[in-house]
């Protein structure tokens, strides 16, 4: 079996992760998650998305309602919505 040499191009990976194409994919996924959350909460107008860039394109879906923590604890509205589009959900600090 022939050996394969692999060299990671960090600059190239960074360029891809910060590209407009990846931004579009991230925004689409965040929009789908937000839409699914809106169908599962009593205050759909409180669901918002926020796009940002770190070393890669990212987005956050939030529910700005005092009842949101209860909805997440009881029904897992954010976790279920994220999982429905294939996103992996992790607790902070873990």
Describe, in short, the structure shown.
This protein is α+β, with helices and mostly antiparallel strands. It has one domain (12-84).
What does this structure look like?
Helix 2 crosses helix 4 and helix 3 packs across helix 4. This protein has one domain. The termini are far apart. A hairpin with a 3-residue loop joins strand 1 and strand 2. The mean pLDDT is 91. It is 48% helix and 15% strand. The chain contains 4 helices and 2 strands. The chain has a two-stranded antiparallel ribbon with strand order 1-2. The longest helix is centred in the N-terminal third of the chain and has 21 residues. With 94 residues, it is of the alpha+beta class.
Number of helices: 4
Low-confidence stretches: none
How large is the share of residues in beta strands? 5-15%
N-C termini distance: 40 Å
Mean pLDDT: 91
Helix-strand string? HHEEHH
Search tags:
two-stranded antiparallel sheet; alpha+beta; elongated; 94 residues
Give a topology summary:
Elements: H1 10-17, H2 20-40, E1 47-53, E2 57-63, H3 68-75, H4 77-84
Antiparallel strand pairs: 1-2
Helix pairs in contact: 2-4, 3-4
């Amino acid at each position: 079996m022939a050996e394969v040499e692999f060299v990671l191009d960090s600059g190239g990976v960074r360029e891809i992760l910060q590209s407009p194409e990846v931004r579009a994919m991230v925004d689409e996924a965040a929009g789908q998650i937000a839409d699914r959350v809106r169908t599962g909460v009593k205050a759909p107008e409180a669901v918002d998305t926020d796009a940002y860039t770190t070393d890669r394109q990212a987005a956050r879906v939030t529910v700005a309602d005092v009842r949101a923590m209860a909805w997440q604890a009881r029904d897992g509205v954010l976790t279920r919505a994220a999982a429905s589009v294939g996103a992996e959900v992790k607790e902070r600090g873990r």
